[in-house]
Structures are given as structure tokens and as C-alpha cells.
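Working notes for the structural subgroup meeting. M.R. asked for a predicted model of this chain before we commit to crystallization trials. I am recording the input and output together here so anyone reviewing the notebook later can reproduce the run.

Input as submitted:
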Amino acid sequence: MRVVAAMSGGVDSAVAAARLLDAGHDVVGVHLALSTSAATLRESARGCCTLEDAADARRVADRLGIPFYVWDLADDFRRDVVDDFVAEYAAGRTPNPCLRCNERIKFAALADKTLALGFDGVATGHYARIVDPGDPDNTTGRRELHRAADAAKDQSYVLGVMDERQLAAAFFPLGDTTKPEIRREAAERGFAVAKKPDSYDICFISDGDTRGWLAGRLGERPGEIVDTSGEIVGEHRGAYGYTVGQRKGLALRRPAADGRPRYVVDTDVTTNRVVVGPEEMLGIDVIVGENARWCGPAPEGLVPVGAQVRAHGRELPATAEATPDGEVVVRLAHRERGVAAGQSVVLYDGTRVVGSATITRTARD
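Returned structure, recorded in C-alpha cell form:
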């Protein structure tokens, strides 16, 4: 097969490209330029897509002897990921930009260009598994997305936005391997990136200061922090900078009467108020989502699933039902705390990813 290997400049995508080549595929390396003003060097392990990363990817491609190109998707990334991120926070929601990038860039804009050029698909260094029809683990007779063998590195959550068409043209060569094994393999292959730190957090906010980054784009909007009785207990510089479940950085004027810690239990960008309350107010067991994306046919009726609401969160036993008006209602067997609108809930059947939805509201049953 002719495959485009998306090469970020990190160790995972380097080994993924090498494994494709070993398997006999015709491989072309592609680095995505996602910033209109990419930094020359990384300042830390946060972020990615610097000129240094592009150079690291090129060196790996040269060592493998495969063609290498840089594709400019900066405008797509700004519009579909960065602008969406700002708009979601401005509306009082908490988005996950990694899911948006996979949904709209890597397995949409990149995949569409790849297929249009006559390639068979796109490979990335994500830790997840594709199970083909006929494999013993396959339950549907279609290509399935499954959790990675390495639970600590499993990235199936951020891939839960992929639909059946995108899965058909996706390759994840690292799904059966642990991260230490990948680093050893990279070193054995002579890749200089074998010990390169992983990138993490939000790639376009390299210093990790999300609230400060948002303030630079949305401006400061001073307002009140109130408790559940409406009493003013503090001030903030923009309700958009807070999310449900947050405890740190509140700078409240005084502790609660019972001395217990308080958490953000609601944000209202309309009134520009942040509401804080005790920990028990964070527990919810009903999640309603929209914009459902299924990795195969949508489930019919009420079905048992595992539900995950954070990239590295626990899987919760639950039931899910797709409603006629396009919503997905998930009922958790146990209460989960700190679930905010804008996050994604990803549904599982064993290790298989069933689909995902963007959370619009939560409740207690």
C-alpha cells in the first residue's frame, strides 16, 4: 500500500514510519506545518510543530530513505482548532483541542489530501489499535478502533471522533507496543529522537498558561465569584478562564464556614459569574451530548457501554442511547465529578471504541 506517515518530529511517529516501511509499504513522510509563525526551538516539553520538530522529522525520513514533505495546514488548524477553542471557552464550555485536531485536521484535511493524491491512507504514532474484519477480536465485521495494549499510553479517547470512513484509511502501527519498547526500538534504529521528551498539554499554548492565553484573545472581563447562596466570595478576570471541578487559582477572600475546600460548580458567561461550592456538588451521573460520531453504525436502543470523559480518565460503567433528535444520553452507574460542557464523552464496548459525543449538559438522576 502507499501510505503517508504523519511525522511530528517525535519518537512515536518516527517508529511508526519505520514499521510501515518494514512491513513493505510504499511510505512518504509528511510533517504538518500548523503554525503561521512556528518557533525555531522548543522551550520545553510542551507544544510541538516548531522548526526544530520539522528538522527532526526530516532527519528520520532521510535515515529511512523515504521522501519527505512539509504540508502547510496552518490556516485549517487556526480555523478548525484554535478559533474553535477560543469560541468554546467564550461560550463557557471546556473543549478538547486534541479531539478537534484529529477530527478536522489529521483524519479530515490531511486524510482528504492524502487520498486525493492516490495514497491508501494515513499513519500516525497514536497508541491505539485497528482491528480488521476476520481478526479474532473483531465483533462487527467492519474495521474497528480499539484501545492500545499499553493502557498507560492509550490514546483511543482522542481518536473517538473518527467515523467509519476515516477508520478505513487509518494506520496505527504502535498499538501493540509500550512506550519503553518504542524508545528502545528508536535507539536501535539510530534515531536521534529516541530520548526526545514527549509533547503534552495544548500544543499551541507552549507555556501552559491557558487562562493567560485566552485573556490575550478575549480580553479581561472582571466579575464576581459567588457561593451557592449568591454571596460574593471573590473576583475573577474572566469567567471563561474557569472550568467545572477547578479548585486551584480561585483566590477566594475567605474559607468556607465549615473550612472545607470549594470548587467551581458552574460558570455563567452571560452574567460573567463563577459559582463555587462543596465537592459533593460536582458529582453527576447523567450526561447529554450532541454531534455524535460513531466508529460504525449508531447503537440501537439502550445499550451497555463504558464511558470515559477525560483523555486519561477512568472508564465508567454506563448505558447509552441515541435519541431521535440527535442527542446521546449516557447514564453512569456511579457518579463522576468535574464533568463540564464542551468536553467529550467517548463510549466503549470492551476495548472497542463505539463512538463519541460533545457534552452539552449534565445532571443527577
